[in-house]
């Protein structure tokens, strides 16, 4: 089997969907913004429950996490079985081994694009996305056993802490790696998105690049969500796409909660320029 998976990886609410929408518009060379509910034309995700039912040949009880996880290798092999050179797979899983299963197997991986975001800002989006208080969200992203529990349509995601997640993905790997900061994507999208295209071996065409960035703008994504909804929005969230800005924590996050994040994850924050 080919090593064809290109992981689009991030902690939740860190820019993964933004990257997916950009790549879809660029690679499909759209002349109008691609409908956000068609972004899955670009690739797939690794937590889609239907894929696990399919490879098992029966309907699984997705709440039986350890049992369901044993089907993950077969799900990933099914993705690369199309013999394509590149298969984009969105993931929020840390690069770890869980219940004896290697979550990100080198044998199937071509490359990874990892997007990180200042946890002081990310936690605000995380709280809104999952319908919880800022304090509860801080507790989640600083807990080593943090996970997205399975639903009727998705399997569990194994996240861990924000800093553990980052460290798992930035460590050396036997494949091509790209690490992007969300804040750099905001400040200079042309440069950062071009890096992603070069990683996967796609020529950068300036006009096409500018168009795809415009079609993936937060204004455009919010406009589409207001008009048609977004199928990836969780039920507990009012909307999927927020403001998409940086430094909102300075006005919106309780300083005591910010201190907890700094105290528990400061070393990794400092390494990537998130401590002032």
Give the key terms.
276 residues; 13 helices; alpha/beta; two-stranded antiparallel ribbon
Question: What is the average of the pLDDT values?
Answer: 94
**Main sheet makeup:** 5 strands, parallel
Assign the CATH architecture: 3-Layer(aba) Sandwich
Uncertain stretches: none
Please give the alpha-carbon distance between the first and last residues: 46 Å
The third-level CATH topology is Rossmann fold
Radius of gyration, rounded? 18 Å
What this model shows, in words?
The protein is of the alpha/beta class and 276 residues long. The chain has one domain: P-loop containing nucleotide triphosphate hydrolases (Rossmann fold). 44% of the residues lie in helices and 13% in strands. The protein is built from 13 helices and nine strands. Strands 2-3-1-6-9 form a five-stranded parallel β-sheet, with helices on both faces. It has a two-stranded antiparallel sheet with strand order 4-5. β4 and β5 form a beta hairpin. α2 packs across α4 and α5 crosses α6. The protein starts with a strand and ends in a 5-residue tail after the last helix.
Provide a compact summary of the structure.
The protein has 276 residues and is α/β, with parallel strands linked by helices.
Helix and strand arrangement:
Elements: E1 5-10, H1 16-27, E2 43-45, H2 49-56, H3 65-69, H4 72-80, E3 87-91, E4 97-98, E5 101-102, E6 109-116, H5 119-130, H6 134-141, E7 147-148, E8 157-158, H7 162-170, E9 176-181, H8 182-187, H9 189-199, H10 206-215, H11 218-228, H12 249-252, H13 255-271
Parallel strand pairs: 1-3, 1-6, 2-3, 6-9
Antiparallel strand pairs: 4-5, 7-8
Helix pairs in contact: 1-10, 2-4, 5-6
């Amino acid at each position: 089997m080919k090593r064809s998976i290109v992981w689009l990886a991030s902690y939740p609410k860190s820019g993964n969907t933004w990257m997916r929408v950009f790549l879809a518009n660029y690679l499909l060379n759209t002349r109008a913004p691609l409908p956000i509910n068609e972004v899955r034309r670009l690739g797939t995700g690794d937590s889609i429950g239907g894929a696990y039912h399919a490879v098992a040949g029966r309907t699984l009880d997705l709440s039986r996490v350890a049992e369901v996880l044993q089907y993950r290798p077969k799900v990933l092999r099914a993705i690369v079985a199309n013999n394509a050179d590149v298969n984009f797979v969105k993931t929020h899983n840390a690069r770890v081994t869980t219940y004896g299963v290697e979550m990100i197997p080198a044998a199937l991986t071509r490359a990874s694009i990892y997007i990180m975001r200042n946890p002081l800002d990310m936690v605000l989006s995380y709280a809104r996305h999952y319908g919880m208080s800022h304090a509860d969200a801080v507790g989640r992203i600083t807990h080593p056993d943090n996970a997205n529990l399975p639903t009727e349509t998705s399997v569990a995601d194994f996240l861990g802490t924000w800093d553990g997640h980052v460290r798992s993905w930035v460590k050396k790997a036997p494949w091509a790696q790209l690490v992007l900061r969300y804040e750099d994507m905001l400040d200079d999208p042309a440069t950062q998105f071009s890096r992603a295209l070069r990683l996967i071996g796609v020529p950068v065409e300036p006009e096409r690049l500018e168009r795809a960035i415009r079609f993936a703008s937060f204004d455009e994504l919010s406009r589409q969500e207001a008009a048609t909804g977004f199928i990836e929005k969780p039920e507990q969230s009012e909307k999927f796409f927020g403001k998409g800005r940086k430094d909102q924590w300075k006005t919106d996050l309780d300083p005591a909660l910010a201190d907890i994040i700094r105290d528990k994850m400061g070393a990794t924050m400092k390494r990537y320029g998130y401590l002032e």
